[in-house]
């Protein structure tokens, strides 16, 4: 039954790995897990993303939870990329579903996928290997990546913000602003805040601890507060939204001589 749910490749991966050993291999010792991430019910399951069960079941659950069709929803983010990016960063990349689509769409770009869960990165790397795709997977904190400023053409985050407290979403957008080059883009795909406000039962169903406060907030406002311009949010499919913004060519906080 478990095998039917997660698929044959994932079942083989689940059974063949020493997960503790593999996750230790992925762990960046400089990373400290924030308390919101290690709260018992993060992601609505025990131990949140820091288990192999979360990682191995994630894709199957997401396929059901992303109507009308998961790949269609993810592709709307790809379609919004308005340049030919050479460097792309996917924050909270999870098992890499959006990251892999980005690399397939922009094969010459260097693509970095960053996530706090070594377990999710194990699955992401396995999917990339099966697809023959090279991605730079990194274990790290989206709100403090330590990556070079102005070093990406596009920074994305899909299905990350409904899981984090709003002040963390804001800090992640501030970090995205720091990382994206002037004229570069930020693209945030997630649940529709407007619709989720009216769908309390759905928030209750997934038991995500921060979804209600996410729904009450406004990614548009957070992106503007981070410094992005031309910010707009469009509704996608049944229950999703895509927010995009551009980093100004000149940083208004830098005084011109
Ligand atoms: C719902 S999953 C989304 C995964 C993937 N982006 C997708 O579209 O399927 C959220 C992911 O964000 C990661 N995450 C949550 N908070 C994070 C943070 N502060 N820094 C980095 N990753 C984080 C989790 O480990 C998890 O893999």
Number of helices: 13
| % residues in beta strands | 15-25%
From the spread of the alpha carbons, the general shape counts as globular
Give me the CATH architecture, please: 3-Layer(aba) Sandwich
Uncertain segments: none
Percent helix range: 40-55%
Give a structural overview.
Helices cover 44% and strands 19% of the residues. The chain is α/β, with parallel strands linked by helices. It has one domain (2-246): Rossmann fold (3-Layer(aba) Sandwich). Helix 2 (8-16) packs antiparallel against helix 5, helix 5 (52-65) packs across helix 8 and helix 9 (166-179) crosses helix 13 (219-226). The radius of gyration is 18 Å and the shape is globular. The N and C termini lie far apart (67 Å). The model has no long low-confidence stretch (mean pLDDT 91). S-adenosylmethionine (SAM) binds next to helix 7.
């Amino acid at each position: 039954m478990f095998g039917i749910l997660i698929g044959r490749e994932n079942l083989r991966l689940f059974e063949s790995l020493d997960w503790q050993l593999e996750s230790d291999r992925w762990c960046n010792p400089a990373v400290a897990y924030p308390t919101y991430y290690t709260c018992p019910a993060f992601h609505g399951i025990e131990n949140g993303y820091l288990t192999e069960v979360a990682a191995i079941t994630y894709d199957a659950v997401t396929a059901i939870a992303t109507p009308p069709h998961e790949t269609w929803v993810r592709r709307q983010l790809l379609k919004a990329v308005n340049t030919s990016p050479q460097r792309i960063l996917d924050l909270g990349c999870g098992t890499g579903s959006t990251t892999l689509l980005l690399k397939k769409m922009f094969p010459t770009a260097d693509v970095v996928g960053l996530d706090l869960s070594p377990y999710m990165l194990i699955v992401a790397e396995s999917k990339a290997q099966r697809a023959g795709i090279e991605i730079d997977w990194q274990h790290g904190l989206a709100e403090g990546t330590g990556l070079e400023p102005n070093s990406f053409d596009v920074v994305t985050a899909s299905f990350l913000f409904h899981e984090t407290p709003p002040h963390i979403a804001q800090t992640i957008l501030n970090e995205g602003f720091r990382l994206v080059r002037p004229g570069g883009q930020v693209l945030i795909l997630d649940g529709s805040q407007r619709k989720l406000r009216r769908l309390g039962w759905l928030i209750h169903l997934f038991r995500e601890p921060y979804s209600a406060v996410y729904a009450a907030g406004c990614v548009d406002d957070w992106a503007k507060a981070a410094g992005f311009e031309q910010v707009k949010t469009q509704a996608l499919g049944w229950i999703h939204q895509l927010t995009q913004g551009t980093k100004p060519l000149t940083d208004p906080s830098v005084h011109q001589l």
